[in-house]
Amino acid sequence: MPPRKTVLKLSGVERHYGQGETTLTILKGADFELRSGEIVALVAPSGTGKSTLLHLAGLLEHPDDGEVYIGGQSCNGLPDNERTAIRRSEIGFVYQFHHLLPEFSAVENIMMPQLIAGLSKAEAKERAGQLLDYMRIGHRADHRPSELSGGEQQRVAIARAVANAPRVLLADEPTGNLDPETASYVFDALEALVRQSGLAALIATHNHELAGRMDRRVTIEGGKVVEL
Ligand SMILES: Nc1ncnc2c1ncn2[C@@H]1O[C@H](COP(=O)(O)OP(=O)(O)OP(=O)(O)O)[C@@H](O)[C@H]1O
């Protein structure tokens, strides 16, 4: 097997929030690497900084110090429009709640990011259809989110997140509002997608059973990312 490439790297990352007179330190000298083809669980108690770490990794926030690299490129000093371009092409996000557009069907929701990226309608529709089949919800393509079950909605959200073939998938409690059996089924689909595409995934979860199925587990301790 060829050596796996590091697709996401955090180096000496600091993040502090001002709270009145005091400063809340969330990350302090945090280092982390994610390689293509791997799925890493981020398991840490509530309020320790999982969402903060995902936002920094996804270029949604700037660290107060340290560096975030996507595909080997340092992103801190880049202007916002370049950070946005990298975020759109290299990173996919999945949240606890699907955030699908309610007025559009499943297939249209997955087409949307591709159309924004400049693909033709026919190309976007073909890829969206493939992803829906891959997530085993091809028969739901024309349904709106409100007509889908929670597990189906999350599978559409995952398909949308990877529609533009990003390098990195960042997920914040992607199965947090699903029952254990549905969560397991959604994770099966996500795992198959990562294995097949060589994507890399960092998944914040409170679900220890799912975390146990991932390649590695990390937590946040004293502002640092440590292996479990
Ligand atoms: N913009 C902000 N301003 C001030 N404090 C913030 C801000 N964002 C997050 N925090 C604080 O930073 C800490 C870490 O928040 P974060 O959302 O990253 O935690 P989390 O581990 O994802 O928690 P949960 O599992 O509950 O979602 C929390 O104490 C939170 O209150």
TrEMBL record:
Matching SMART domains: AAA
Coiled coil region boundaries: none
Pfam families in alphabetical order: ABC_tran
UniProt cross-references to SUPFAM superfamilies, sorted A to Z: P-loop containing nucleoside triphosphate hydrolases
UniProt cross-references to PANTHER family, sorted A to Z: IMPORT ATP-BINDING PROTEIN, LIPOPROTEIN-RELEASING SYSTEM ATP-BINDING PROTEIN LOLD
An example Gene Ontology molecular-function term: ATP binding
Keywords noted in UniProt: ATP-binding, Nucleotide-binding, Translocase, Transport
Family: Belongs to the ABC transporter superfamily.
Protein origin, superkingdom: Bacteria
Domain ABC transporter, first and last residues per copy: 8-228
Name of the molecule in the record: ABC transporter ATP-binding protein
Listed InterPro entries: AAA+_ATPase, ABC_transporter-like_ATP-bd, ABC_transporter-like_CS, ABC_transpr_LolD-like, MacB-like_ATP-bd, P-loop_NTPase
